[in-house]
């Protein structure tokens, strides 16, 4: 619903440079040679609007949580598709090269692939009163982005066997005991979450337009 971004419109439909985030995201996905089809889990009240925005995509109603939305979209992926990438419309400027790198790593045999960036700030753990308990070693920490890639069967099993809510799909595959492989993430794949992120995205978009087709 884009509550942290504000504005009263489901986030995927909020505009960046005159076009919905969803359209920016799908355009970049479609430019990755590995992407054969796009399935969108849309806000349930906006399914028709989303179909009109991305005519080539399969559109299904999303769920109450991100995990439920992914499960709904996954159920609409044909059996013939062997590699599934799960992406956030909120990461609207994710470059096609990153999409392709994730798909390639899955094809090379990984059970789960995530784009990862190093942590740039000092990280501290705090108690309920906001008192610092410890300063965490940030060297082994990573910020995780999307798209996240999986062999279809692995992702289907992870969703079928999930007993609690996860903030990403790789976390569910991790729970099955599989190794999750990191590929270098991208600053362009930032998740547009707060109003500041929209300003940053505007600036990134003018600095990194897609090549004219
Ligand atoms: N029920 C939901 C909730 C989120 N998402 C998607 O998951 C991605 C990451 O979620 P987030 O950034 O948390 O989006 P919102 O849930 O819209 O944000 P907020 O929590 O601020 O409302 C977004 O592309 C969003 O569209 C989804 O498909 N289904
Ligand atoms: C999937 C994700 O984008 C990876 O960083 C993130 O976990 C989504 O989290 P949100 O709380 O639903 O924004």
From TrEMBL:
<dbReference type="InterPro" id="IPR001228">
    <property type="entry name" value="IspD"/>
</dbReference>
<dbReference type="GO" id="GO:0019288">
    <property type="term" value="P:isopentenyl diphosphate biosynthetic process, methylerythritol 4-phosphate pathway"/>
</dbReference>
<dbReference type="InterPro" id="IPR029044">
    <property type="entry name" value="Nucleotide-diphossugar_trans"/>
</dbReference>
<comment type="function">
    <text>Catalyzes the formation of 4-diphosphocytidyl-2-C-methyl-D-erythritol from CTP and 2-C-methyl-D-erythritol 4-phosphate (MEP).</text>
</comment>
<comment type="pathway">
    <text>Isoprenoid biosynthesis; isopentenyl diphosphate biosynthesis via DXP pathway; isopentenyl diphosphate from 1-deoxy-D-xylulose 5-phosphate: step 2/6.</text>
</comment>
<dbReference type="InterPro" id="IPR018294">
    <property type="entry name" value="ISPD_synthase_CS"/>
</dbReference>
<feature type="site" description="Positions MEP for the nucleophilic attack">
    <location>
        <position position="191"/>
    </location>
</feature>
<feature type="site" description="Transition state stabilizer">
    <location>
        <position position="4"/>
    </location>
</feature>
<keyword id="KW-0548">Nucleotidyltransferase</keyword>
<feature type="site" description="Transition state stabilizer">
    <location>
        <position position="11"/>
    </location>
</feature>
<dbReference type="Pfam" id="PF01128">
    <property type="entry name" value="IspD"/>
</dbReference>
<feature type="site" description="Positions MEP for the nucleophilic attack">
    <location>
        <position position="138"/>
    </location>
</feature>
<dbReference type="GO" id="GO:0050518">
    <property type="term" value="F:2-C-methyl-D-erythritol 4-phosphate cytidylyltransferase activity"/>
</dbReference>
<protein>
    <recommendedName>
        <fullName>2-C-methyl-D-erythritol 4-phosphate cytidylyltransferase</fullName>
        <ecNumber>2.7.7.60</ecNumber>
    </recommendedName>
</protein>
<comment type="similarity">
    <text>Belongs to the IspD/TarI cytidylyltransferase family. IspD subfamily.</text>
</comment>
<keyword id="KW-0414">Isoprene biosynthesis</keyword>
<keyword id="KW-0808">Transferase</keyword>
<dbReference type="InterPro" id="IPR034683">
    <property type="entry name" value="IspD/TarI"/>
</dbReference>
<dbReference type="InterPro" id="IPR050088">
    <property type="entry name" value="IspD/TarI_cytidylyltransf_bact"/>
</dbReference>
């Amino acid at each position: 619903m884009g509550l942290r971004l504000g504005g009263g419109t489901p986030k995927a439909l909020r505009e960046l440079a005159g076009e919905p985030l969803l359209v920016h995201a799908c355009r970049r996905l479609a430019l990755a040679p590995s992407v054969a089809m796009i399935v969108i889990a849309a806000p349930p009240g906006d399914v028709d609007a989303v179909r009109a925005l991305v005519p080539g995509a399969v559109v299904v109603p999303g769920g109450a949580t991100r995990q439920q939305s992914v499960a709904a979209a996954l159920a609409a992926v044909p059996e013939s598709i062997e590699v599934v990438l799960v992406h956030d419309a909120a990461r609207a400027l994710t470059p096609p090269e990153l999409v392709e790198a994730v798909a390639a790593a899955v094809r090379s045999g990984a059970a789960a692939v995530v784009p990862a960036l190093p942590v740039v700030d000092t990280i501290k753990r705090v108690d309920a009163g906001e008192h610092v308990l410890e300063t965490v070693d940030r060297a082994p920490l990573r910020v995780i982005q999307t798209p996240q890639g999986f062999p279809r069967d692995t992702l289907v099993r992870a969703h079928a066997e999930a007993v609690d809510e996860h903030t990403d799909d790789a976390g569910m595959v991790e729970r099955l005991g599989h190794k999750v492989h990191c590929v270098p993430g991208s600053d362009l794949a930032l998740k547009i979450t707060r109003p500041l992120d929209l300003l940053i995205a505007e600036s990134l978009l003018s600095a990194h337009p897609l090549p004219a087709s």
